[in-house]
Write a structure and sequence with these properties.
This protein has about 400 residues and is α+β, with helices and mostly antiparallel strands. The chain is built from 11 helices and 12 strands. Helices cover about 40% and strands about 25% of the residues. Helix 3 crosses helix 4 and helix 3 (about 130-145) packs across helix 5 (about 175-180).
Length: about 400
């Protein structure tokens, strides 16, 4: 049984035991990585994500009460709240309630739901467990009520969950990756026009390894909003100076003169966004040419820009990346996700994964007193909804 099938079967059984009935629908979403293109989705840039073989699964049915009853196997926690309002401060409850509300925002449905959540996606590590939860619920509600929402509708409503219920002014990278990914492929998503280009991924002599720094991203939310606002401020100043600049895609890596009018901090933010878009394009060409060294170099340059220009790294991860350069088989890597802790994504020569993990773990424990966890990644299909009858 595959990891995906295992999670599906577990979730079905948990629901049956919890509510003494079968769920109407089961939906499952993978987590995701982002190879390159960080902090550019909300700046209408380019990103290169892929779904990974870690899953969040929900089982759900309507009930005849006005309550939403939820249970998380992962957290061993539950709730029972009124359908029409939620005063619960627990973040996972906000995500569940918000996802249902955004799914049915113009519906007259006023009864409740029974729901079970079961996940193997690490939480708070930058691999989109919350986006997987949103996507799974939206897909399920879409199926139960035959709402005929398009993929773009689902992604936008997931974003509304973040904005309206979690108070995070997120972009749509995470939800797009969870929903739209294809097995053995990566894709470039252009957030300016939502154009998607799939790239067949056939590289056999490398592995992608995720390293968890165990540094909690305490500043991620507040600093994230700070970066969003800095970019808005920079774009406003640039467009006042030159009315032909409507977004950062109207700039390129050779437009230093254009951004020289900005305060130094905003110059750095724009430099990251513009150069990161350029790195995504170069990464696509490197993958097509199977130029492993160039792929690694681009990851390192991305990290340096996130560290120096966007200022979202931290000492522990910077030291981790610097030490990795001395480990045989390490090709490149960078901080991934919102920043200020979390994980690094690393490109490793096949056969050197274990020695890389061992040497990095020893260094990290010695210098910071922490054990870093490692995940070996495979690329998989995006989220899907399954009627319970198909699992019987």
């Amino acid at each position: 049984m595959t990891p995906k099938q295992t999670v599906l079967e577990q979730t079905k059984k948990i629901f049956q035991n919890k509510y003494n009935k079968n769920p109407e629908v089961i939906s499952i979403s993978p987590g995701r990585i982002n190879i390159i293109g960080e902090h550019v989705d909300y700046n209408l840039g380019l990103s290169m994500p892929a779904a990974i073989d870690k899953y969040l699964c929900i089982a759900i049915s309507k009930n005849r009460t006005e309550k939403i009853n939820g249970y998380s196997e992962t957290l061993n926690d539950s709730f029972s709240n009124n359908y029409s309002s939620n005063n619960d401060s627990r973040n996972w409850v906000k995500y569940v309630h918000g996802s249902i509300m955004e799914s049915l925002n113009k519906s007259k449905y006023k009864s409740g739901f029974d729901i079970v959540i079961n996940s193997t996606i690490p939480m708070g590590k930058g691999v989109s467990s919350s986006a997987a939860l949103e996507v799974s619920i939206l897909l399920s509600i879409n199926k139960i009520f035959n709402l005929k929402m398009s993929n773009n509708d689902i992604i936008k409503r997931c974003q509304s969950v973040d904005h309206n219920h979690i108070n995070i002014k997120s972009g749509i990278l995470d939800q797009s990756a969870c929903l739209l990914s294809k097995k053995d492929s990566i894709f470039i998503i252009d957030f300016y026009d939502m154009n998607i280009e799939y790239i067949k991924y056939n590289l056999k002599n490398i592995k992608w390894i995720l390293i968890d720094s165990k540094i909690r991203r305490e500043l991620a939310s507040s600093k994230y909003h700070e970066r969003v606002n800095e970019c808005k401020q920079a774009l406003k100043l640039l467009s006042i100076q030159n009315n032909k600049i409507n977004n950062f895609r109207d700039l390129n890596i050779n437009t230093a003169k254009e951004i020289s009018i900005l305060p130094p901090k905003l110059q750095k933010r724009v430099t990251h966004v513009v150069s990161e878009n350029d790195r995504v394009i170069k990464m696509k060409e490197a993958i097509k040419k199977e130029s492993i060294k160039q792929m690694g170099d681009l990851l390192i340059k991305s990290h340096e820009s996130l560290r120096d220009n966007y200022e979202v790294s931290c000492t522990e991860i910077d030291r981790m990346i610097n030490f990795s350069k001395s480990i045989k088989g390490w090709i490149g890597g960078r901080i991934m996700g919102g920043g200020f802790g979390g994980v690094t994504i690393n490109l490793i020569q096949l056969g050197y994964e274990d020695s890389f993990i061992d040497k990095l773990s020893i260094f990290y424990k010695k210098n910071f007193g922490l054990n870093c966890d490692a995940e070996d990644l495979s690329f998989v299909d995006g989220a899907e909804t399954i009627y319970i009858n198909s699992l019987n």
